[in-house]
Amino acid sequence: MRYYGTVVRPPSEADSYILQVTLGCSHNRCTFCGTYRGKPFRPRAIREVLEDVAMAAERFPETQRVFLADGNALVMSTERLAEILDALHAAFPRLRRVGVYANARDLLQKHEADLAMLSRKKLQIVYLGLESGSDEVLRRVGKGATAADMVEGVLKAKRAGLRVSVIALLGLGGADLSSQHAEETGRVVSAMDPHYLSMLTLMLVPGTELHRQWQSGAFTIPKPEELLGELRQVIAHLNGLSRCVFRTNHASNYLPLAGTLARDKPRLLAALDQARTLGPSALRPEAWRAL
């Protein structure tokens, strides 16, 4: 059970066994992300991965959830992923699900039948960083995919039986593209109809290109009250969702919210309106925010 670098995983995988099958992120060019800057991408040797699984089986035989790290482990070949999933199934009799980060390219390059096969082997949830539904914002931040690419990837994953958790980032459009970013994010998520939607709030990371743009004045972060307005626009433009669970409980956010969008959209909008009326006293203090 070895891990190289800082452990990065979704909040919902806090109780999972983290198995590092790749190092870094195969894209690693997003201007806002410094997570894998010092970690060149490579798959780990399968021998090492299987050794870690064997060690974890001895120490944590009751494991029910596993998360495959690092940044987008779904980039690995279907055959290698199947081998790892088979090893996890053999090692943990109570295993219920395996999760993984993915990007649009990972999903689009795999055959739907292969994704379905991996799902049967208990790869149950995929986390995808949409970040924004605006193609202009995606272009500016170097995401490497269009909104249409990500919609297609999510729908493909869902058809294959995978659950999909989508992540979007408040503030990423800056002050000038705030409304476009919010409205298009709501529209694109509606087209995806994911199982889960998490909204995080941008925090600038020193050393990243976006941080340098902010220092030079080329990028302006919306103020906290403007970010609440942006969040309200996102939610207002979410329509036709059948089962999507919504969360803003990440430590980067100013206001934690939770609900099922098909049922709770009016309540979520009312909570935002109340917080905007109350002002800073209703928000998480800046010092408490974290990535």
Describe this structure as you would to a colleague.
It is globular, with a radius of gyration of 19 Å. The protein is of the alpha/beta class and 291 residues long. Helix 7 (178-192) runs parallel beside helix 9. It has one domain (11-280): Aldolase class I (TIM Barrel). It is built from 10 helices and 10 strands.
In terms of topology, how is this protein built?
Elements: E1 17-20, E2 22-23, E3 42-43, H1 46-59, E4 65-69, H2 78-91, E5 97-102, H3 104-109, H4 112-120, E6 123-131, H5 135-140, H6 147-159, E7 163-170, H7 178-192, E8 196-201, H8 209-216, H9 224-236, E9 245-247, E10 258-260, H10 261-278
Parallel strand pairs: 1-4, 4-5, 5-6, 6-7, 7-8, 8-9
Antiparallel strand pairs: 2-3, 9-10
Brief description of this entry?
With 291 residues, this protein is α/β, with parallel strands linked by helices. It contains ten helices and ten strands. The mean pLDDT is 96.
Low-confidence stretches are none
Distance between the termini: 25 Å
CATH level-1 class: Alpha Beta
Helix and strand composition category: alpha/beta
The CATH superfamily is identified as: Aldolase class I
What's the structural domain tally? 1
For the biggest sheet, the summary is: 8 strands, mixed
State which percent range the strand residues make up: 15-25%
Radius of gyration: 19 Å
Mean pLDDT: 96
Number of helical stretches of at least 4 residues: 10
Q: Which features does this protein show?
A:
single chain; 291 residues; alpha/beta; TIM Barrel; 8-stranded mixed β-sheet; two-stranded antiparallel sheet; 10 strands; globular
